[in-house]
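Example record for the data management plan.
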Amino acid sequence: MERKNAWNFYNEQDLAAVEELSIRYRRFLDAGKTERECAAESVRMAREAGYRDLLQMIHQGASLKPGDKVYISFMEKSAAFFRIGTEPLEQGMNIIGAHIDSPRLDLKQVPCYEEAGNVYLDTHYYGGIKKYQWFALPLALHGIVVRKDGTWARLSVGEKEDDPVFVITDLLPHLGRERNEQKVKDFFDAEKMDLLIGNRPVKEQDVKQHILEILSETYQIQEEDFLSAELEIVPAGRARECGLDRSMVLSYGQDDRSCAFAALHALLGDGDKEPGTQGCGRTACCLLVDKEETGSNGATGMKSRFFENAAAEILAMTGEAFGKTPIQEVTFDLRLRRALLHSRMLSADVSAAYDPAFEKYFEKKNSAYLGNGLVFNKYSGGGGKSGANDANPEYMAKLRRIMEEHHVTFQTAELGAVDQGGGGTIAYIMAKYGMEVIDCGLAVLSMHAPWEATSKADLYEAVKGYRAFYKKML
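Corresponding structural encoding:
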């Protein structure tokens, strides 16, 4: 089948829209380098677009009607955004779900120690990383520290031009003869991936005491406050344009914040130029969740009942909680189950872009390519589709029609060559409700590396495709 490069179809107006979208996207990435920051930025964008806090409305005893726009944030690390449609919720929603956590390093609860005149913070890596990629790289520290009295301090150190940065040190090549004979997994010890944060003693104090004084004076943080902290180590620096033609974006965390941004932007719209999901028949929902990179467990992961509970609240507030059929009274629980069963979903997650430097790990006909538009992965998993959600062909046919009717450039792909690995998304979790689900997102080069590359054109096509899905999927 002939592949289409999205750039070949753009006029001057399209090119201007691509660049404007890219600017917004890079700002989004810079504002949300952790799942907590990303959730906060998403809520800020929604409030700016006229969305109201669902929890406040519940407290006020308010109801919902078609056209209302609401959001709910959970533990500041997951969020759901709803545009109420004209059709009963029991007939289903159009849902696009993405995760907003990304591979990184976390601080341990007792992290700070001094060794050989240097002070380090002890780490534990989060998600699937190649450990060697995190050595000798400028790093930043983000997160919150909660004190015993309930007050907290927010940290973001390493992003401003005059901020200090941090580093995990590496061995010089002159002493690396033994290293060259070892397997990568054996040489890079996770317990040695500790962050260098200081080297200077002051007034006969040891270096650690000096560092703890800085933390106390600058952030009012004591050493024991690390016990109740959520501090993450991420690459320092802002998202950048990539390539002499400026056709790409290079940034940390594009898996999966590229899809999260596209899904949210498609729902919220762009003022008068793009009214978002206004006039939708079915309720449209953008769902942003945490913990995908570690299995979607925990209260803020997709395996929790956060989304189900939010859907129940929406159902109750639209006045659909109870009703009667000619045969029997329909319970609230049954109406909720019907709403989820009849929903349609795009699991908005990235796909591995074909990289000619590693061609043996891909199968060219069934790979995603930068610039070829939105990617549909009918199934994921590994080996014999182990752990995969495998979308129905009827559903794929409907999506093909919608994309073509709205002039969305799209492609289909598998994650890589058979038996070369595999991966999972939140698709299989939502499929447990019986709803139709398929993975659909952007192609990414260097996925899970500290810096990942995507195409501006693919982001533009993703927003177009997601917007069409919100409005037209039945």
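Summary line stored alongside the record: The chain is about 30% helix and 25% strand.
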